[in-house]
């Protein structure tokens, strides 16, 4: 069955973003979603921002998208969604070379300077400024000193809130936009399922298999094929070094975000690597549908799990 993908927001032509405002700094008072223009303007006022809301339009049932202009001509978008399956917020800040004529590094400097604003606005709009401040500190601890900072792929979590920071490019001198999304756990679980459906529609269906079946595969022919295994993860650890197959993988987030784990389904167990996510060890220990791909037929095959949604 085909699905709509309400949370997969295109960058262009309409820029989207989503922070929702809290009434009390440091205290979580979730506002009503989706956020209308008055709610976004109230958040801007609380954050002492003179950004102007130039447009506020419904994006479908349970969704409102607000477009904002900054004084320097840069653009911000706030996208908020609540369709009964969790609350999704995205704040996208975009700036282009023409906004900074004659200075190739000014755009990256702009995003670096605006990081506290981006997290602060997201915290205000989501209703939890304390969590947003914590996540800003965590991101700085993680990213400062890394190539491309602040244009880093990063995910974090504070309690029930999941924070996803996504750049348009991992290269600092080509950074055009930063998107910060804040999702509650229900929305994050929904998002995992939507991503899995999207991957299957665009990259081919994953083959359902058990681990005992994977153990008997001709690994030379299995490379690149996606498989779906229902099972649970345990023994999850951070990595100190990546295997060569992962090091060479194009588009891989920072190696510091990759983890290693043991996947089990009752018939067998398999060592795997995990694409970054903000699920807890307890959540990953639940029975989930794990989408995994064989990256290299080496003495120890390298299996990478890209997504781990709950069964439908």
Q: Can you describe this structure?
A:
With 312 residues, the chain is an alpha+beta fold. The protein folds into two domains: 37-189, no CATH class; 205-307, OB fold (Dihydrolipoamide Acetyltransferase, E2P) (Beta Barrel). 26% of the residues lie in helices and 30% in strands. The chain has a seven-stranded antiparallel sheet. A hairpin with a 4-residue loop joins strand 3 (75-82) and strand 4 (87-94). Helix 2 (106-126) runs antiparallel to helix 3. The longest helix has 21 residues, at 106-126. The chain starts with 36 loop residues before the first helix and ends in a 5-residue tail after the last strand.
Radius of gyration: 20 Å
Helix content: 25-40%
**End-to-end span in angstroms?**
12 Å
Strand order of the largest sheet: 1-2-3-4-7-6-5
Put the structure in a nutshell:
With 312 residues, the protein is of the alpha+beta class.
Record keyword descriptors for this entry:
single chain; 312 residues; 2 domains; 7-stranded antiparallel beta sheet; 5-stranded mixed barrel
Task: Write the topology of this structure.
Elements: H1 37-46, E1 52-60, E2 63-69, E3 75-82, E4 87-94, H2 106-126, H3 129-143, E5 154-158, E6 161-167, E7 177-184, H4 185-203, E8 207-208, H5 211-215, H6 219-222, E9 226-238, H7 244-247, E10 259-264, E11 269-274, H8 281-284, E12 288-296, E13 302-307
Parallel strand pairs: 8-9, 11-13
Antiparallel strand pairs: 1-2, 2-3, 3-4, 4-7, 5-6, 6-7, 9-10, 9-12, 10-11, 12-13
